[in-house]
Amino acid sequence: MNDKHKTNEAPKPFVLAPGDACDLSQIPSNPDVGEWDKKSARERIEDNVKEMADLARRLYADNQRSVLLVLQGMDTAGKDGTIRSVMRGVNPRSCQVVSFKKPSEEELDHDFLWRVHRVVPRRGNIGIFNRSHYEDVLVVRVHNLVPEPVWQARYQTINAFEKLLHDCGTVIVKCCLHISKEIQRERLQARVDDPDSHWKFNPDDISERKVWDKYQEAYNAAITKCNTDYAPWYIVPSDRKWYRNLVVSQLLLEKLREINPKYPPAEGDWTGMVIE
Ligand code: AMP
Ligand code: MG
After folding, report:
1. Which of 32, 87, 134, 276 has its CA 20 to 30 A from that of 8?
2. pTM metric for this prediction
């Protein structure tokens, strides 16, 4: 039997030291995969899913810490697919996915973090942001939806916000799912070619693709300015879906292992008690 996946060290995302300038064009979206392939990755993710289920149960029982996984990436980078693959085993009771869409009128009438802060994970929970407060320095910056001084000031606000969450016990893991422009073309084409995927296709995706370079610039700025030791960015090569899923699965598992949540002590010793 091939148990290669059990001993091999799983691939890691790219990281930068806080303050270092990010340049996504210099980071491969499809790196050398070494000994890994789709099958061994699937087997490892299967194992990770089981261990993560146990750790998530302990996290919930312990009720002290929480985890926030932020997923950002260009259209078709695979935010939904990653969630489906990585979070499969976790009890939905203690795990919430929040997708951030265009802000409503009510949301726009508040500060940009208003809609975000109210949905951060509570103690014992894992929260997953499919898009996030980073849209307020990504799409908003690319299209100048607010004046430049307003979005420029947001990087610092975001750092302060994430510091607050960190200080209150939230472990923040921010993943940029990094794909090439060519892979995006293929995936958008595939959506157009498959009638069952038309619901996912949005003509906006085409206009957004036209400003690809401006988006890369905005991502570089966000990752450079908001890569802190308390809320680091991880750049996940995402041209191969299985590789992307493996990297995120392993990363999240290792964060949970570091937290090492324990079941709280029982309120009494009930060993041997017989219920009638
Ligand atoms: P999707 O993730 O495909 O469902 O698309 C959600 C859309 O909402 C994307 O085009 C985002 O850029 C957009 N969006 C999310 N947050 C914001 C925001 N704060 N301001 C403007 N647009 C946003
Ligand atoms: Mg979309």
Report:
1. 87
2. 0.96
> Any idea of the CA torsion for 147, 153, 159, 160, to the nearest 10 degrees?
-120
Going from the Cα of 205 to the center of ligand 2, the distance in angstroms, rounded, reads 7
Given a cut of 90, is residue 8 above it in pLDDT?
no
Q: Domain residue spans in the chain? A: 3-28+36-259
Angle formed at CA 124 by CA 155 and CA 48, multiple of 5 degrees: 90
pLDDT tens digits, residue range 160-217? 999 999 999 999 999 999 999 999 999 999 999 999 999 999 999 999 999 999 999 9
- How far apart CA 169 and CA 82 sit, in angstroms, is 25
- The ligand 1 atom at the shortest distance from the C-alpha of residue 204 is 10
- Give the architecture-level CATH label for domain 3-28+36-259: 3-Layer(aba) Sandwich (3.40)
Q: Which residues line ligand 1 (CB under 6 A)?
A: 100-103, 131, 135-136, 139-140, 204
**Ligand 2 centroid vs 254 CA: distance in angstroms?**
29
